[in-house]
Amino acid sequence: MALINEIRERSGIVIGIIAISLILFIVGGDIFGSGKLFGGDSNKVGEIAGHDVMYDEFNQDVERIKASAGQPIPEEQMSFVREQAWNQYLLRYGYQKQYDALGLTVSDDEVVDMVQGNSIAPAVKQIPIFKNEQTGEFDKNLVKGFLGNLKGAPVENQAQWKQFEDGLRSERQRTKYENLLSLSSYVTTAEAQREYEAQTAKATVKYAYIPFFSVPDSTVKVTDAQLEAYLNKNPAKYKGVDTRSLQYVTFAVLPSKKDSADFLQELKELAQGLASAENDTAYAQANSDVPSEAGYVDISKMSDPLKATLGTFFKGGVYGPYQEGDTYAIYKLLNSKQDTVSSLRASHILITAPKEANDSTRTAARRKAQGLLDQLKAGANFEELARTNGSDGTASRGGDLGWYTQGGGFVKPFEDALLAAPGKGLMPNLVETEFGYHVVQITEPKTNQKYQFATIKKTIGPSEETQNEAFEKAERFASQSQTAAAFKESLKKDPSLVPFTAERVRQDASNLNSLTNAREVIRWAFNEDTKANGVSPVFDVDNQYVVALLTGRTDADDVTVADYRDELTGQVRNEIKAEQILKKLGTVSGKLEDVAKKYGPEAVVESAPDVTLSSASLKNVGFDPVAAGKVFGLKKGGRTKPFAGESGVLIVELQNLAPAPEIADYSQYKNQLKQTNTQRTSYLLNEAIKDNANIKDNRAKFY
Fold it and tell me: Residue 469 is inside which H or E element, if any?
């Protein structure tokens, strides 16, 4: 059953394709909403449409998806696997109720048609074993042959194919449901006409504008009572969400001076061992932290410190240790050989003159390039001229092209010129290519020598003793800081500790500022046993120890001013500024210029032609649908009263209005609106399903 083995290996990819298609329509910020965290059964991962998703059940589904991949899944990708499992519950319990209410099903005959009939599903066509070896095209007969042998396959293989078909069935059912709604979308002629007029009717306006930022924030006092009142007036704009705020300190686990000294001694011993090793390659592999290239390398692949010793190379010679980024490297030269492909390093100054440019442009470019070449022959600095005259991305680095290997992608005239250069130094003539004229300098001469090394690469790290010292320090800090006051007092006692703050961390977050893989800290913060101002145990995060203080929390079921203080403050402050500006403006009469002059230098007068209702934008004001609506509510020559817009106070005059010409056919605009509605169907449908399912997602408690 070679076929079944291959599909078992490949089916994880296919199932992933289906899972991705199920996820694509789920967009937005907080994907599944939120509920009161950790309520009810301590083993409940969540709740969807009245169904309790328990940990054991959910974990089995996660493991099943993992197994279907046919290969190990790294831990950093497990969140995606769990998302697939969660989405299946949403489909099973959230969507299925709607399917059942409509009598929407996918028959066995339809599944057969998707697998081996006339409407083959894309996921089936993408399975490699169903493609003809000669043509590379999908072959339905291979599917039939596979299915004919399936009954004799092991039970687990049959179950896996059944799972794959179930995925096809689920995807087809969801597509039917979406199509049912999207195809029922209807746009009336009146709606199409309104859209046409919104896009086509154009207004020319003149307006006085006093931006909110012209009133300093420091002069506007905002009270909590005002924020509370604004929040109560706009409940739909500010949804509750579970978050936690933390202050934390880190205890770095870095190599000590003794660790560094011991590491250098280890490198010396490794260099001696490599020099005398009978099996150089095996010795290097056994003692290296980082895999290295086993074959021959040219000079372009060598590190700068190794290249610097090129003239001292001899077979069996040991070179290093050299520091190369975060690692130290030791090399033993095993062999060298001449290759047919050459490498060199060069710099250039490009004076652009595309081949399609006219003769005068190319002549001027050539003249400029020749002038630069003459300056260089007279002793000018190449890098300085490249920085001030080069016209491509190499100018900022003095024209350096880096190491180039023959056949590496340069256009042929340029490559031919480089490889023909006799040696190091300035090339005496310009090089002409389709891009223009190049002044070229060979910085490292051409070579076709290649080298084979046995390489040891080691990364310095803290010793166990150093790690223990850092952990003991963190433990001591945590034990002495069991309250918020004690936490702050401990910080005062040790000035070397710098506290970090993470505000409004969501329950599904993985990072705390620059701390990645901080899930354990976040899970602690959301644990129902963690109280306000509680101090955490010591966590090991990114090779450092972390102790955290819970400083605040928000609750999805209890929206407060503190949850949205910054946003609320900005909105209320602008309302107060608008009142102050309107009061200062007083009764408005006369020309707009006179009104602006009377108000002060903060007021500006602008004109804007071709304003449309659909764009809803004014020059130097930006997007402002309130202003656009008022414009198209005026008669020619009419003026609005002062009003507060999105970013300031405006007075608008309609100078001219070019109505949309009458047309007989609005089909184009009907189609535009229908396409927009269709594109939004999936998202809006999913949002409605989620709202109706009353989802509570407690996954952050477990993962």
Answer: helix 464-479
